[in-house]
From TrEMBL:
One of its GO terms (biological process) is transmembrane transport. It comes from Haloferax denitrificans ATCC 35960. Pfam families: ABC-3. Belongs to the ABC-3 integral membrane protein family. One of its GO terms (cellular component) is ATP-binding cassette (ABC) transporter complex. The chain crosses the membrane at residues 36-61, 68-86, 123-141, 153-182, 194-215, 235-268, 280-300, 306-324. The keyword Transmembrane helix applies. SUPFAM superfamilies: ABC transporter involved in vitamin B12 uptake, BtuC. This is ABC-type transport system permease. Signal peptide: none annotated. Keywords: Membrane, Transmembrane, Transmembrane helix. It is found in: Membrane.
Length: 328
């Protein structure tokens, strides 16, 4: 085959291959979405429906409650997992700082939608701004004379100030949409939110598993880590980014104001029980899971805010453990 016919055939094949290449990501995305929908409906829904039948608690069969429970189960793992490295480095306020800057990211996304018609997902805006804020904090500590607590305070107040200014620029028009991110909500957790949370959770757990030894080394002896030529800056950056992931993934349930609590309270509780760092990690995850499940249950039964209920249960657990250790 030669001449124009051959050229036409070649062009046709090129178009077909190009179409196939462009469709491949969509097919993969659709397949993953289908698998997750099956998991959420058949596995999670089936398990909770069975629990509802056994316990007589009908609310366990409600899809939105199943999504809420799955969310807090994920948060109960990743929060204490990352929070342990922060608490033992005296960086407990990092979570609170990134949460407040994530608020600015949500406000920015809603502002762009309200003023320019750009449909930016609020959680995406929160994630981008939180990651940038984490890197800014690290840069301030490394390249200026600012102490870590001062750098955190500046970024925290700057992020919250930016969010409040963006709200005022729209005449308060986006304040209604932002309230659910400030205080959290059970009813507004969608399938997409749960999917994002599970995905981020897998990324966080996988990253900590791969980089566990460097993270521990830098956490307990950063000077020795530098002397051994460990890339401390990369480890710090990884921890900052993972913290941003945890904060953003937990926002819909916990709310911006309280999300940092699950990075700190279960870890402090576990520190009074564990005899080693690994034991503290395990106990911290268990404390986070118990606080999350109990808090969501109390919030539903009594019509309370989910984030506040979870934090109060976590604090009650700390008080109980501290009192038990005191009396023992």
């Amino acid at each position: 085959m030669t001449g124009p016919v051959a050229l036409a055939a070649t062009d046709l094949l090129a178009v077909e291959f190009s179409a196939a290449d462009s469709l491949a990501p969509l097919l993969v995305t659709d397949a993953l979405t289908g698998v997750f929908d099956w998991f959420l409906t058949a596995v999670v829904g089936g398990a909770f429906s069975w629990l509802a039948g056994v316990t007589g608690l009908d609310f366990l069969g409600y899809p939105y409650m199943q999504r809420a429970y799955l969310s807090v189960l994920c948060i109960g793992v990743v929060g204490p997992l990352v929070g342990s490295f922060l608490v033992y480095r005296d960086l407990s306020m990092v979570g609170d700082t990134l949460a407040h800057t994530a608020f600015a990211g949500v406000a920015l996304a809603l502002f762009l939608d309200a003023t320019l018609g750009l449909a930016v997902p609020p959680l995406l805006g929160a994630l981008v701004v939180a990651v940038v804020a984490a890197l800014v904090v690290q840069a301030l500590v490394e390249y200026t004379d600012a102490r870590s607590d001062a750098a955190l305070a500046m970024v925290l107040t700057g992020g919250f100030a930016l969010g409040s200014v963006l709200i005022s620029l729209t005449g308060g028009g986006i304040s209604v949409g932002i309230n659910q991110y400030l205080f959290g909500s059970l009813a507004t957790v969608s399938r997409a939110d749960v999917g994002l949370l599970v995905s981020m959770g897998l990324v966080v757990v996988g990253s900590v598993a791969v980089a566990y030894r460097p993270l521990v080394y830098v956490t307990f002896d950063e000077t020795a880590a530098r002397a051994s030529r460990l890339h401390v800056r990369a480890v710090n950056t990884l921890l900052s980014v993972l913290t941003a992931f945890v904060v953003v993934s937990a926002m819909r349930i916990m709310g911006v104001i309280l999300v940092a609590a699950l990075l700190v309270v279960p870890v402090v509780t576990a520190s009074r029980l564990g005899r080693s760092f690994k034991q503290s990690l395990l106990y911290g995850v268990l404390a986070g899971e118990l606080a999350g499940v109990a808090g969501v249950t109390v919030a539903y039964l009594y019509g309370l805010a989910a984030g506040g209920s979870i934090v109060l249960v976590a604090l009650a657990g700390f008080v109980a453990v501290a009192a038990g250790r005191r009396l023992a």
